[in-house]
Design a protein that fits this description.
Elements (H helix, E strand, L loop, with lengths): L1 E7 L13 E8 L2 H14 L9 H4 L3 H14 L3 E7 H18 L3 H6 L2 H16 L5 H11 L5 H8 L5 H12 L1 H8 L12 H16 L4 E5 L2 H8 L13 E2 L7 E2 L9 E3 L5 H18 L4 H15 L10 H5 L4 H18 L5 H15 L1
Parallel strand pairs: 1-4, 4-7
Antiparallel strand pairs: 1-2, 2-3, 5-6
Length: about 375
């Protein structure tokens, strides 16, 4: 059966839009015939208005909510949903575009100790506590990765005066390596469009998850410019009938690196597919649940969504300050020590700062 995919809460390349703070992506395993039967049944039973009932509208009405609860009751075992906190996702992108170019040759070492998650949580926490005055960092970072301003972020970071030593070291590290960071962005001579769009990574992650359950995937997506660009730009990942490769980069068990498609991914308008309409209902319900967690409807959705979310929790992008920023946390200690070493080696002009930090850590561990 096909996998139908749709999203909710997307603002494309803008992750700072305040009205929609979350992003959700749903992938539903259902036949078009079954989807049509279910959609027509819900529309008739609950007197849903319009030729194509939208989840974003259904969550606002009593009948719409009842219809969605019945949809979850019947099909929650056939859907996978991924959800992201958009502003925190921008903090994760900060690591990807600021730290990754400098430590790329040994990046698996840093990922193994979840240094990326420490940086993302630390930066997010600092900016949230300082409020709107600090959000200029996020704004300038978005401009940098979108290619509209290659200097602004580093000007802000270099002029920043902060009493937090760790903040100064992170900002200093970025400024020392600004040329390498900018060169990495322009490695293909142009900045990639949709570079901050979350649909691309969410779609990939959900297909990897479905690959574990279904060896060969037939996929239909709601028409999307970012996904079309990802799929149709000659990306070999989306060629049909590929051999599935497994990997275990962090020593936590093998997972698929890719997925096997039976045919090229199809893009349809939602008004042409009941499967896409049901996927939209799932994505919109999950979005409402995240934004209005205290609502009565969210309370009723909670048992279904907690189970659904548990299957994609390792790919979810949400702040975890208790895990990564508590003073007694091993992640905090490793992160704090690593930032200092990266900064110190950078000040000394070392070209292999990532390797230097890794070898220093391994040497210390061996002595212990």
């Amino acid at each position: 059966m096909p996998i139908y995919c749709d999203e909710a809460g997307s603002n494309g390349n803008d992750l700072l839009e305040k009205i929609q703070p979350y992003f959700t992506y749903a992938a539903l395993d259902i036949s078009e015939d079954d989807a049509a039967e279910m959609a027509n049944y819900l529309k008739t039973k609950y007197r849903l208005q319009g030729n194509e009932p939208k989840g974003i509208n259904m969550v606002k009405t009593q009948n719409g909510r009842l219809a969605l609860l019945e949809l979850f009751e019947r099909y929650s075992g056939k859907v996978k949903i991924l959800y992201h906190h958009k502003k925190f996702a921008l903090s994760c992108k900060f690591f990807e575009y600021i730290f990754e170019p400098v430590i790329a040759e040994v990046n698996s070492f840093f990922y193994r100790y979840e240094f990326n998650k420490f940086i993302a949580n630390f930066l997010f926490d600092i900016i949230e506590r300082k409020g709107e005055s600090a959000e200029i960092i996020y704004i300038k970072f978005q401009h940098l990765v979108r290619g509209s301003d290659f200097r602004g972020l580093f000007d802000v970071l270099s002029s920043s005066i902060d009493d937090n030593k760790l903040v100064r070291q992170i900002f200093g590290f970025a400024c020392i390596h600004k040329d390498k960071i900018r060169d990495e962005l322009l490695i293909t001579e142009k900045v990639q469009p949709w570079v901050l769009d979350l649909a691309q990574s969410a779609f990939y992650d959900l297909m990897v998850k479905w690959q574990i359950d279904i060896p060969e995937l037939t996929v239909i997506c709601d028409d999307s410019k970012p996904l079309r660009y990802l799929v149709e730009d000659g990306n070999s990942l989306f060629r049909p009938n590929q051999e599935v490769k497994m990997w275990d980069p962090l020593g936590k068990g093998e997972i698929p690196l890719n997925f096997k498609l039976t045919e090229p991914i199809k893009f349809l308008k939602s008004n042409k597919s009941k499967g896409l309409q049901l996927a939209d209902m799932f994505a919109s319900s999950a979005y409402f649940f995240l934004k209005h967690s205290d609502d009565e409807f969210s309370t009723k959705l909670s048992p279904y969504l907690e189970n659904i979310f548990s299957h994609t929790s390792d790919r979810t992008i949400m702040p975890q300050p208790t895990k990564y920023l508590s003073s007694g946390s091993p992640f905090y200690k490793f992160g704090k020590d690593t930032v200092k070493q990266l900064y110190d080696f950078s000040l000394k002009g070392r070209k292999d700062v990532g390797s230097s930090v890794m070898y220093a850590f391994l040497k210390k561990a061996t002595i212990k």
